[in-house]
Write a structure and sequence with these properties.
Layout lengths: L3 H17 L6 H11 L11 H23 L9
Helix pairs in contact: 1-2, 1-3
């Protein structure tokens, strides 16, 4: 697990950097276009903090939903 953390954080931080700056490619470009269609401004220079925050909110929601779905049904019945 310790070896996977730095790799995942590098991918995560790289994605956030690509989404918040002008000119990304791939999935980051599609997500940035989605955000821009909803009014999030992406400056030509510098980073867009609203883009970062919306991206983190979406990732947090996805993780929450995965946990809810993964843990559903694992609750033990309570005795009466």
């Amino acid at each position: 697990i310790l070896g996977v953390g730095p790799i995942l954080s590098g991918v995560y931080n790289g994605f956030l950097d690509a989404v918040s700056t002008a000119g990304p490619s791939g999935l980051a470009a599609r997500w940035q276009a989605f955000l821009m269609d909803r009014g999030v401004q992406i400056p030509a220079a510098g980073a867009s903090w609203p883009a970062v925050w919306w991206t983190e909110a979406a990732i947090g929601l996805a993780v929450f939903m995965l946990l809810v779905l993964g843990l559903a049904g694992t609750r033990e019945p309570q005795p009466d």
